[in-house]
Sequence to fold (118 residues):
Amino acid sequence: MNQIKLKRIGSEIQQELSQICLMEANDSILHSITITGTEVTNDLSFCKVFFTSTLDMDHKSLEKELNDDTAGYLRTKIANRIEVRHTPKLRFCYDNSISYGNNIEKILEEIHEKDNNN
Fold:
């Protein structure tokens, strides 16, 4: 499938998921997550949903909770909102890029402090 169309569908899914989590969900876990990105497969069968959370839960258990308990509910909500022939199955993956970026920034600050002290 055309990559532009896949990105558009992924963007629509991300926008709708964000709105559902923010406005409509009754689950405290959904209120605590932020959708940071999506990747849709070429055949539209799966959509990886990247997220971060403000909860102090283990990332793996949070992923498991979202994938097991809420992915079906969210897929149904999305199917009613966007027009695609087949709504992809959602697979939630914790996004480590923010913590990775913060770690790099911390290391750079330490290097600058060392250089300034010398």
Notes: The longest strand covers residues 33-40. The chain has a mean pLDDT of 90.
